[in-house]
Write a structure and sequence with these properties.
about 300 residues; alpha/beta; disordered N terminus
Length: about 300
């Protein structure tokens, strides 16, 4: 199947329509890729849309060629069903920005990094003192808990907790804390406010510049760390990994991978940090790059 894909489509990137150069690694480096780690929203697909047929076919060809494909996402476990339905051969996924490794076939948590009680207490106190109008959501292994006024409409499946009642959430096992501030939809600006509060107790990032949501993982936990552990357990080096992403929560993963690709049209920080680009979603997304990886594999 990989040979057919290589014959049908050129392994070279299409010409960039923007002023930004779209450089790819040479064929020798692409041919060594044994793991494809991809963010989901804004990278693998447009949120709310299915995976493009071209990309889905390329992912299927990876399975046939023995290349491991692993989604590495900020999504919680409960948002992974549509992905596993479209690509049923995926074995594992890294969720919640690296805090959870989930077996898509067995539908069970393989590994989870929980926010420590002291860290949660420390951050909650700083929040109440410095940004008292901010509201928190707690992503747990049992679902989402939110403080009053976290959102105008209660997210599906979420449960309310009292303001400041982080202990109820902590008892359920918190893997990610969400921060919202009424009237603030600029996630970069909110991240600037939240980062100093989280420093030393949690890792702050965001995955959408316009939804006014900051995401806090346990201290030291990133997509990169979880992916590195996944690869080390299988004897795979960073030079054998191609990673794709578009938002600040992908930065560490893209820097760690031997070949890190920013999706064209992604966040300016990500575009500035990455040497390599994949086309924008409406120009094929990561599909053409995966085809080039398949075409470059030794016969």
């Amino acid at each position: 199947m990989s040979g057919a894909l290589g014959a049908e489509r050129s392994a070279q990137p299409p010409p960039a329509r923007s002023g930004l150069a779209r450089t790819w690694p040479d064929a020798g480096r692409l041919g060594r890729v044994g793991v494809i780690a991809t963010d989901i929203d804004g990278t693998l697909l447009r949120t709310g849309s299915p995976i493009a047929e071209r990309t889905a076919q390329a992912l299927d060809a990876c399975a046939a060629a023995g290349i491991i494909v692993i989604p590495v996402t900020g999504r919680p476990i409960r948002w992974m069903a549509p992905i596993s339905e479209q690509v049923p051969h995926l074995p594992l996924t890294i969720c919640s920005n690296g805090a959870v490794v989930y077996d898509l076939q067995a539908r069970r948590v393989v590994h989870a990094e929980l926010v420590e009680e002291a860290s949660l207490a420390d951050f909650a106190l700083r929040r109440s003192q410095l940004i008292p109008r901010a509201r928190l959501g707690f992503e747990t292994l049992d679902g989402l808990l939110v403080e009053p006024d976290f959102a105008a409409q209660l997210p599906a499946g979420a449960r309310r907790v009292e303001l400041g009642d982080w202990r109820t959430a902590q008892a359920a096992g918190v893997v990610k804390v969400l921060v919202r501030l009424e009237g603030q939809m600029d996630s970069d600006a909110l991240l600037h406010q939240v980062e100093p509060l989280a420093r030393g107790c949690m890792h702050a990032t965001h995955s959408n510049p316009a939804n006014g949501l900051v995401e806090l993982a346990p201290a030291g936990v990133t997509k990169a760390g979880a992916l590195a552990r996944f690869c080390a357990e299988r004897g795979i080096g960073a030079h054998e990994v191609a990673a794709f992403g578009d938002m600040p929560n992908d930065l560490e993963m893209l820097a760690w991978a031997g070949s890190g690709f920013a999706v064209e049209g992604g966040h300016p920080r990500v575009l500035a940090a990455c040497e390599h680009r994949s086309p924008a979603l409406d120009e094929g997304g990561i599909g053409p790059v995966i085809e080039a990886i398949l075409a470059a594999r030794p016969a």
